[in-house]
Write the structure tokens for this entry.
Amino acid sequence: MAPPARDDTAPHGWTPARSAAGRHSPWLIAIIISISAFMEVLDTAIANVSLRHIAGSLAVSYDEATWVLTTYLVANAVVIPMSSWLSDVFGRKRYYMFSVALFTISSFSCGVASSLSMLIVSRVVQGLGGGGLQPNTQAMLVDSFPPSSRGKAMAVYGFTVILAPMLGPLLGGVITDRFSWHWIFLINVPIGLLSLSLVSAFVDEPPLLVKERLERWRRGIHFDFPGALLIALGLGFLEIMTDRGVQDDWFGSPLIRIAALIATACIAGFVLWELWTPRPLLDMHLFKHRNFAAGSLITMVIGVILFGTTQFVPQLVQQVYGYTATDAGLVLTFGGMITVVTMPLAGVLTGRVQPRILMGIALPVIAISLWMMSHFTVDETFTQIAIARAWQSGAIPFLFVPLMSAAYIGVPAQRTGNATALINVARNLGGSVGIGMVQALFARREQFHQARMVGALQPLNPIYENARQTLAHALATRGAAPSAALHIATAELYALMQRQALMLSFADVFRALMLFVLLISPLLLLLRPGPTGRRGGREALGEAIG
């Protein structure tokens, strides 16, 4: 018999009658629902390293091929705020399975696409399907585990949002280099079918949720169309602005200016409308709960760090060190292996040690990692780069897991769906801002360093002229024609200057991110202490290791 239901007055808003586990172990459910969530997050990163191959195969420019990324992100951002309403109206399990099915079918369509237009349409549908997976996964985990065990459950889920962006570039590079870019989408098909069969067999639709859905239908279905339109336009144009900003010269482009104006007006309008309307799409009053408000803000900040650096490190090793797509992914994979070790440890300690203590340890470690990266030179080895990244990868679970556990403390059980949708909007918003901020700063610093260094590359500079003549003489002794040797030497010195300017620009961005991490550390004080086990952190750590 199912345990008696508890209402919003239950401790920390948790009620076992809303569990998706039914008669099965909640840990089995956590693993099953994390499969499709992992697949969805992986798809946001796996195509990054394959764009040149896609452009060449479909006979389009690289700039046109980037819409393969942008359209997915826009569609994903549009559907996330509506996921709570869709889940409540059509049933959580039913909507989840529909999202998996839509994602799987559209993945097949992406894999067999023979034109850019077909690929983009398929990616839009894929983004619409994927947008419902993350919020539903989190909602089922929060409802299936009490606060004392939620940290361990979030550690299982954490593999999806942390490991997937790290493995995406490697997997995409290996598949593209060894097979074809089509397979980066086709591999989703068997995974999606596996997820559908497991969810159908093991995930439960709690009777309490069925009763609530029937009651909603009896009262009459109301859809907040103005709110949905405002948030869809706001987040959609924000994604376009942040994703296309670097290519289109930011506010020098009419498209970016219009996108920024529409995004700002629509997001502000959405917040005001949701606070005013009696039946909102997303309950903005959840931000009255201190931990949820603080958790959403910190989630957005973590999104800046996680997505900003995950996209930036492969860019560094490919542009400065000439790594292939596969080797660039391997740099992140070593860090992913560290995450595999620290994620369970973070899950064990969460619930026994106060979240802000764990996070207060993790942030300085991430800052140290970024400080190490800011001192990279053009002669850095693969091992040195991978180790610096590994420090960051090892610390991120101690940010993510405690935060996901603490943010839901005090949230009423019936508002879990709304809460997970808002948390995911905050994470995606932070990721978009992070990638845009990193790329904008990098472009500006690259211009600055190149302009400063080019001034020294002129014949009146004795150091430059001596280096050019020496290099030309060395080339001539190796068989180069004297007339060509000087031109080759000039070109090589200019290429060396460009590489140095790139390295200095990357270092500036890592330094800025380090300062950002240190500046946001006081936000942890906004989190209220949550319930912990009777044993302290030392005992929990000993149990985890032993």
Remarks:
- Residues 68 and 117 are 10 Å apart (CA to CA).
- The radius of gyration is 25 Å.
- Confidence is low (pLDDT under 50) at residues 1-12, 533-546.
